[in-house]
Amino acid sequence: MSEVALLVVDDSSFNRLMLKRRLAEQGYNDVTMANDGVQALAAIAARRFDCVLLDLEMPELDGIGVLERLREDPTHAPPVIVISALTEMQKIVRCIELGAEDYLPKSFDPPLLRARLGAVLEKKRLRDLADERLRLLEAELESARTAQLSLVPRDFATIAPPGLTIAAAMIPARQVGGDLYEAMRLPGGGVLLCVADVSGKGAPAGLTMARTLGAIRAAARLVPGPLPDPAAILAHANADLAADNESQTFVTAALIVLDAATGEGRICVAGHEAPYLLDAEPPRVLAGFARQPPLGAWEGFAYASCALTLAPGQGLFLYSDGVSEAEDSAQSFFGRGRLEAMLAPVALASPAAVVEATLAAVATFVDGAAQTDDITVLVIRRG
Fold this sequence. Notes:
Layout: E1 5-9, H1 13-25, E2 30-34, H2 37-46, E3 51-55, H3 63-72, E4 80-84, H4 89-97, E5 102-105, H5 110-149, H6 156-159, E6 164-171, E7 179-185, E8 190-198, H7 202-222, H8 230-242, E9 251-259, E10 264-270, E11 276-278, E12 284-285, E13 306-309, E14 315-319, H9 321-324, H10 335-343, H11 351-366, E15 375-382
Parallel strand pairs: 1-2, 1-3, 3-4, 4-5
Antiparallel strand pairs: 6-15, 7-8, 8-9, 9-10, 10-13, 11-12, 11-14, 14-15
């Protein structure tokens, strides 16, 4: 048991020596001594201890004072067993409230010492094991996050055909998320734009996100014509996602195919938020779409697209509901009203400026509240 490091804190030299002897009898030889709470805190700052046996009544800084200091930074605080007299029960209760694991009477009865110290050390071992597994899991999730973010395009200057500018951002609510965006240069001189949202969050949604992105990219190459119909693209993706969909995972999507030279194209919306049109007028939602189910919900569904024309100077704002449904600490939604008010003054700005303004407005609104959904924004402007 020499690997177990213990700290004994007591202002009585007799008690310190007695406890050190009892610990040595049970195989604990790595024992550090401290005369009071000040020395104890200095020792804890200097090295790692598996357990602290802490006296209650001491000069300079007593046991309760030490526990209060340790509670201020519990990350590196070792487990504590309070050394007390049975007449100090009220103080013992206070110590437990401050985080002490157990208490030990000053008689230092060997069987009781063995049992209580052994129980505390075992709990610490299990906590350390859980912390290590959590650390490894977080490292794996961070790696997955990096891999997921690498799937979506970032170099929009090489993607956008002449006459178009594009910007986008995606912020998962967890390490990995279910939102996606796509900006894809088409061989016929056009561009494919898409924002989609997978039901659910976390790793399962992240896997479906990657699958959906792959299906859309593959379908864009399979559908014939210089400007493939977005309805046909989503129909191909739906065939892949709806087959054997036992988990009932759905994907909402808004997909646009646009001719960069003429500004003409088509749009297909599958259960998703409709884009906003950005120009000199107040931002307004594109309308006239047929209500269509999300991808994965209805196998064999025949999706339909609508004509779309983007005049020089006009832009389109595509987003996921993580923007409009962002919540503050009072669980109020950001809402479309705030979104439209935010878009109005930047409606003629560059796509990058619109994206930046959106993320800043949402961050200001939530004011540090935990993010509950993935946030994705994509903006395109012609001319």
